[in-house]
Amino acid sequence: MAACTVQNVAILGHSYIRRLGEFIQDNPDCTNMRLDRERFNICIRGVGGLRVQQLANSREILTFDTKQDICFIQIGGNDLSNSKTPVHTIVEWIMSFAQFLIQGKEVKSVLIGQLLRRHPWKVGRSYNERVIQTNKLLHRACTQRDDNIQFWHHRGFWDPELSFLGRDGVHIRYSKHDQKYMRKYMQSIRSAVLHASNKISPSNGKLNQMSMIDV
C-alpha cells in the first residue's frame, strides 16, 4: 500500500480555539488532536476576542511555512455581540474569508464551525436568536456552493440548559477534573478534519473510518 501524504490542517478562530490549544497542551493523550502524525499535521491558532475581519487581516495567524490542505474556522461569535451589525453581514464576512482561504491561500477544504450559544444573563436574549439565524444562513450559503466550503455542526452543544458552558456564560466548561465538553468539542473538530480529508483524498477513506473509531 502506498504511503499517505501528510495533510496540513489549520484550526483557526477566537478564544474557543485558543482554549482548545491550551487543553491539548495540558493533556498529552490529545496531542495532534489524537490524529496520526504520519497523516496529519495540526496547527492551532486562536486569539481571545477575535472577530472575522481581524482574522482575515491577521498576517500572524495566516502565515504558514507550508500550504494548508484543510482549515477549520470557529469565528463570528464575538461579531454577533454587536447588535448593530446585521447577521447577514457577518455571514458574508465569514463566507468571504472562507473563499479567500480557498483562492488566496490554496486551502483545499474549509470547514466553518457552528456558532454556539451563550448564557442570556451574560449576553441578552437576542444574542442567541442571532446565533440561530447566523447558523441557518451559513448552512444555506455552504450548501449552495461547491463542497470545498462546508458548514460543520457541533453535536451535543444544543441542549436547552446550556450545560456545556462554564461559569462565565461564554466559554466551554473546562477544568482539570471536568473535561467532558472540551473533549467533545475537540472530537467534533477532529471528526470535521477526517471528513474533509476523505473529501479531498478519497483513498484515505478506510483509514479515516478507523481513526473515527479509535477515540
3D architecture notes:
The protein has eight helices and five strands; from the N terminus they run βαβααβαβααβαα. The protein has helices at residues 15-26, 52-56, 59-62, 87-103, 120-123, 125-143, 180-200, 205-213, and strands at residues 7-13, 40-46, 70-74, 109-113, 149-152. The protein has a five-stranded parallel sheet with strand order 2-1-3-4-5, sandwiched between helices.
Structural topology:
Layout: E1 7-13, H1 15-26, E2 40-46, H2 52-56, H3 59-62, E3 70-74, H4 87-103, E4 109-113, H5 120-123, H6 125-143, E5 149-152, H7 180-200, H8 205-213
Parallel strand pairs: 1-2, 1-3, 3-4, 4-5
Helix pairs in contact: 4-6, 7-8
How many helical elements? 8
> Mean pLDDT across all residues, rounded?
93
Taken in chain order, the helices and strands follow as EHEHHEHEHHEHH
Radius of gyration: 17 Å
Find the CATH topology: Rossmann fold
